[in-house]
């Protein structure tokens, strides 16, 4: 009998220590962390007025600048530039336009001067004319070898550890976690499962045109020139409605491109949590907001607090930044 | 001790009887049923060469004519016609075109003569200019009251019981079940959870243009004129790639509009199951295939068997048809 009592006591303690394990160890002990946990508690407690059934626990997050870095330029653009360089090394005749030449030289400023047309040329040259699986094999190879210019880390080591923990915590509480990003779906799906625990079907984003054809008896889906849908600004709630068909109860982002998504989410009935990651940490990362060309954040900072959104101050609220080395 | 033994024996028997409960009671004891079960066994048995991890157990099904009826015309078109009638009853000036007049008179032939343009007029007049949630409230009200012209059943009672059982069986075996339909996503999502156990985020289909705007301080997603994507033929594998991002291992349909989806699915490596429901049952339903205007099936019957697809013979393979009354 004594043995049984000991066994039960041990089991209880083990389960209690499991229940009280910190789900967000890389978040500092500040109001931000407390607000997130108290929100999750309130929507998962069946006795709470704010209780939400698991089927409706939808959480959506922007990717660039929210779940991983985005400076000095979006990592997908760095992939595209590296792909242009590789193609040019094989065949210099590939560089048929000024935009492609600028890309091959890594001249981001010249590319930026060319505007959307120049960017689209580089995207088309590297993101079309090949099967989805061949494109993804190329991205995967790039992720295995390429290093970020200032941190020296692999790009998929530059995911934000506090956000990786948040995603995992939400899934443990029966949330479905989604990426809703201006980045390309085929690009993000290469690493979303490994880096974030997010399966391909929960990766929502921008996509190129694609075609279906049968080549020598083998069906193939091919990436074609042109962008079929831009998942940014108003495009985010529109795409969430198309793909998920439910209004999320949590939305997180870092730029004004996320404003409509967070606005739509938090306007829903019942408890909702909108959050914006403010890049305040010049020491561990990069400090930027309203004046930045990448991840410009003005409206969110100005109007977000009055709309009840949580503004996450990276420098104060995070005890760690990159997942690297963990 | 005897009590304990009895308890354990009872528990074992209960679990054994659970394991041997027929997962497909409305399927006749034919080769079709056997093939489905043996496929599912082979991909879920960890000792099998064909084992597939749960994350990759994706099953996709067409809706009209596969999961519910589609004769004499697609039920969504009947909704649209009923909606035109209701609007005309309120305001006869609503009938501004020949197509709308034909719809108000329920004159399907005149509508058909008007072709795609006439159809689009009717769709635009009933599927745009209102918030997604208002549209869905209208569909829900219609489903509660409208009756099918020949069976007298509510439309959502005309789901196929054998397919409802198949969907449930697959989910019990850790499949994710999806609808991939030429029908509208906002239309299908009104009943997919209730009728099929399929949540909104697993309903893939055709969709109209939509817009996001803030009206009097309230964010709203509005259905706009025009169809943004037609989820039929090549559109099905293209949309599966966009939304799910994985090739399914099971695909089921009933018309040549499903051919590319089943072709792409079954061309994947490893065990795959393609199936086509052949409407052979003039007595309990409607017998139709290659000559039908709705759900035309020629290529699938001609090439499907050589491609290893399972052709389900409704008359022979199903012991029940509609879910009605269950
Ligand atoms: Ca961002
Ligand atoms: Ca069909």
TrEMBL record, chains A, B:
**In which domain of life is the source organism classified?**
Bacteria
User: Which SUPFAM superfamilies has this protein been placed in?
Assistant: HAD-like
Q: Where is the signal peptide?
A: 1-21
Q: Does the keyword Magnesium apply?
A: no
Q: Which InterPro entries match?
A: HAD-like_sf, HAD_sf
Which Gene3D superfamilies does this one have? HAD superfamily/HAD-like
Q: Which UniProt keywords apply?
A: Hydrolase, Signal
One Pfam family assigned to this protein is HAD
Q: Kindly list the GO molecular function terms attached to this UniProt entry.
A: hydrolase activity
**Protein name in UniProt:** Haloacid dehalogenase-like hydrolase
Q: What is the native source organism of this protein?
A: Pelagimonas varians
């Amino acid at each position: 009998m004594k043995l049984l009592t000991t066994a039960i006591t041990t089991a209880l303690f083990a389960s209690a220590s499991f229940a009280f394990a910190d789900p967000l160890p890389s978040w500092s002990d500040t109001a931000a962390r407390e607000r997130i946990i108290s929100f999750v508690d309130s929507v998962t407690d069946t006795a709470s007025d704010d209780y939400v059934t698991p089927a409706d626990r939808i959480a959506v997050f922007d990717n660039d600048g929210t779940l991983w870095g985005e400076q000095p330029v979006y990592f997908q653009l760095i992939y595209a530039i590296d792909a242009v360089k590789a193609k040019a090394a094989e065949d210099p005749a590939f560089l048929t336009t000024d935009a492609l030449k600028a890309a091959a030289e890594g001249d981001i400023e010249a590319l930026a001067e060319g505007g959307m047309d120049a960017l689209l040329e580089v995207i088309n040259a590297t993101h079309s004319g090949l099967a989805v699986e061949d494109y993804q094999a190329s991205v995967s190879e790039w992720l295995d070898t390429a290093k970020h210019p200032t941190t020296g880390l692999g790009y998929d080591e530059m995911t934000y550890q506090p956000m990786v923990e948040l995603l995992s915590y939400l899934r443990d509480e029966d949330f479905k976690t989604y990426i809703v990003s201006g980045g390309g779906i085929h690009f993000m799906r290469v690493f979303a499962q490994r880096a974030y625990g997010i399966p391909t079907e929960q990766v929502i984003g921008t996509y190129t045109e694609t075609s279906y054809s049968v080549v020598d008896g083998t069906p193939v889906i091919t990436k074609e020139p042109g962008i079929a849908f831009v998942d940014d600004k108003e495009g985010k709630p529109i795409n969430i409605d198309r793909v998920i068909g439910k209004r999320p109860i949590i939305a997180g982002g870092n730029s004004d491109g996320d404003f409509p998504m967070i606005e739509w989410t938090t306007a829903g009935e019942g408890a909702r949590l909108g959050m914006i990651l403010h890049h305040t940490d010049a020491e561990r990362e990069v400090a930027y907001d309203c004046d930045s060309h990448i991840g410009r954040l003005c409206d969110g900072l100005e109007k977000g607090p009055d709309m009840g959104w949580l503004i996450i101050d990276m420098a104060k609220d995070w005890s760690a930044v990159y997942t690297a080395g963990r």
